[in-house]
Design brief:
The chain is of the alpha+beta class and 349 residues long. The chain has one domain: ATPase, nucleotide binding domain (Nucleotidyltransferase, domain 5, 2-Layer Sandwich). It is 34% helix and 28% strand. It contains eleven helices and 17 strands. It has a nine-stranded mixed β-sheet with strand order 3-2-1-7-9-8-5-6-4. Strands 10, 11, 12, 13, 16 and 17 form a six-stranded mixed β-sheet that branches. Strand 1 and strand 2 form a beta hairpin. Helix 4 crosses helix 11, helix 6 crosses helix 7 and helix 6 runs antiparallel to helix 8. The chain is globular and about 65 Å long.
Length: 349
């Protein structure tokens, strides 16, 4: 039996969704896109029972080709994280494979599995036909076929039967309009009406407009003005004020905390003002980009906001576009929709 899945290899998180036969057994997995090479076994190192807590945020150990990678939360506690933000990262490399294997393991566990994946790629890539063909060709080159790997001492044998690609925000459109069996569940008029999707990711800001089953190029485009801009500004401000160097993912995690604090040589630092400044600056850049393409967006019957940044900037988006809707489960919406479309596309083969 071939399962149908959606995979969104985001720069902030890798997201995967698997849908079983007839829309049953929907599994969702989210793994921070943080990878390093190291070990989580600290031997007999300890401080006894002083202040002891259970170990939290221990990354997964993903082993293949004779190398063990640490993946997910807590990597920076054990190894230096790899921080690649270029689009070539999406084509191949051990970090991408380790993240993909970990997401698949979180979805299905150990054992033997066979899956066909619909993969989401940034609009900026998909809008360039030759670039998109090259990226998809490279992804299919390593994804399609048989894989053997080990996660946390559990063995996985995976066969990827097929891989196709669509723009990431198309997944949000499918999550909004399709059910888990790949059937259109909204009013038929919504298939004809102009629907606009704004996907605010970590490293990407994608605008995608569909009307009557066609993509409207005038209002569709992409940029790298995602939430990474806020993380970069926070890194600079924390370095200047506290003398502490943060990784991109550490800065992003602080930006999402209700009470962002950091321990330094000078004591505990309250970062709320620095975080607010960084978020305000990033929000201004995002709104400016959207306004250049969409204006006030009143020309669209539906305006959908998705991506991890949509939750953080919810209030700003609501003020600017009061008729817009922030989709539920913004982090996983693209992957959910891609999986639903995969059921429709692969299920008929």
């Amino acid at each position: 039996m071939v399962l149908c899945g959606g995979y969104d290899p985001g720069f902030g998180n890798g997201k995967g969704v698997i849908i079983g036969p007839s829309g049953s057994n929907v599994n969702v997995a989210v793994v921070p896109s943080v990878v390093g090479v190291g070990e989580t076994d600290l031997g007999m190192l300890s401080v006894g029972n002083l202040g002891r807590r259970s170990r939290r945020n221990v990354p997964d150990r993903v082993s293949f080709d004779g190398v063990t990678y640490l993946v997910g939360k807590g990597v920076s506690r054990y190894a230096r994280p790899v921080q690649r933000m270029d689009f070539l990262r999406l084509t191949d490399g051990p970090e991408l494979r380790a993240l993909f294997y970990d997401v698949t393991f979180r979805l299905l566990g150990e054992g033997v599995h066979k899956i066909a994946f619909m993969v989401g790629l940034p609009v900026e890539i998909m809008a360039d036909r030759e670039h998109a063909k090259g990226v998809l060709r490279a992804m299919r080159g390593w994804m399609v076929g048989e894989h053997s790997f080990v996660v946390n001492d559990e063995e996985v044998s995976l066969e990827v039967a097929d891989v196709r690609a669509m723009a990431q925000p198309a997944g949000a459109f499918f999550a909004w309009g399709l059910d888990d069996r790949g059937k259109w569940i909204r009013d038929r008029s919504d298939l004809r009406a102009p629907v606009a999707i704004c996907d605010i990711g970590f490293n990407t800001l994608d605008l995608f407009v569909v009307e009557g089953g066609e993509v409207i190029g005038r209002f569709t485009g992409g940029d790298t003005a995602g939430m990474r801009r806020a993380a970069e500004q926070l890194i600079t401000r924390v370095q200047g004020q506290c003398g502490v160097e943060l990784s991109l993912h550490e800065a992003d995690a602080l930006a999402r905390q209700k009470r962002p604090r950091l321990y330094t040589a000078d004591g505990e630092a309250d970062l709320r003002s620095l975080v607010n400044q960084a978020l305000d600056s990033a929000a201004a850049g995002i709104v400016t980009f959207v306004e250049r393409r969409w204006g006030n967006a009143r020309q669209f019957a539906h305006v959908l906001f998705t991506g991890g940044g949509a939750d953080i900037l919810h209030d700003t988006l609501a003020r600017q576009y009061p008729h817009g809707v922030v989709l539920p489960n913004t982090v996983t919406a693209n992957a959910v929709g891609l999986a639903r479309y995969a059921v429709r596309a692969f299920g008929r083969k």
